[in-house]
Amino acid sequence: MDELSLPAAVIEIANAAPWVRKWPSVLREGLFLLVTLVSTAALHGQSASPVGQPPPPKAIHTPKPVYRAEWAKQGLTGKGVVLVNIDKQTGNVTGARMLTSTGNRQLDGAVLEAYSQWRFDPRTVAVSQLKVPIEFAKRPAPQPAKRTLPQPVILLIILAIAGAAIGFLKRRRA
Predict the structure, then answer these.
(1) What is the 3-state secondary structure (H, E, C) of 56-111?
(2) pLDDT at 157
(3) What is the pTM of this model?
(4) Lower CB density within 10 Å: C or N end of the chain?
(5) Each residue's pLDDT tens digit, 129-165
(6) How many CA atoms lie within 13 A of 2 on its CB side?
(7) Which residues, including other chains, have CB under 8 Å from residue 107's CB and lie 6 or more apart?
(8) Residues with Cβ < 8 Å from 119, sequence gap 6 or more?
(9) Cα–Cα distances in Å, from 114 out to 12, 31, 84, 159?
(10) Closest residue by Cα to residue 42 from 34, 51, 32
């Protein structure tokens, strides 16, 4: 069967930060970057295929792996390679298996569940199997946001200082 290697896709995992506790939905939904964007970009972005190999199929539905909050707390990371089997007639993924494990059964399971749901444009499917690298990597904790005053408050402060200065000058002249 034909096989095609693609550049690695990356999911970045944020360490739990104070702002995450304020937004539980962000923690549940956003502790990783979209592997699908990177994977899809890799699928779409290759300019030339190696000689003798067809271009990669165009992905049209690429759900991202679920990364649970407790996995972030545990610091789970890993890299692996998934082999997806594609039905050339429908473009549906008919099976997915780990060629190279991420080193964690939970991460492997999340990847396989997501990649099993991928779909490709059947007009672009020239290969029945595709290797897709995956990486779950830690990302540095976000820097705390700088606290700044809203512009109207700054304007009021400037006006108060200017008013006090004018009042002081008037009293000196009198």
Answers:
(1) CCCEEECCCCCCCHHHHHHCCCEEEEEEEEECCCCCEEEEEEEEECCCCHHHHHHH
(2) 84
(3) 0.53
(4) C
(5) 999 999 888 765 666 777 766 677 777 888 889 888 8
(6) 15
(7) 65, 71, 76, 78, 80, 136
(8) 59, 60, 61, 90, 91, 92, 93
(9) 16, 16, 11, 57
(10) 34
**Could you tell me which residues come within 8 angstroms of residue 80 by beta carbon, excluding any fewer than 6 positions away?**
98, 99, 100, 101, 102, 103, 107, 108, 111, 133, 134, 135
Neighbours of 68 (CB within 10 A): 15
Return the pLDDT at 68: 87
Q: Quick one: pLDDT at residue 165?
A: 86
Q: Which two tokens stand for residue 130?
A: 């595709």
- The residue behind tokens 């006006």 is 159
Sole residue written with tokens 């997806």: 84
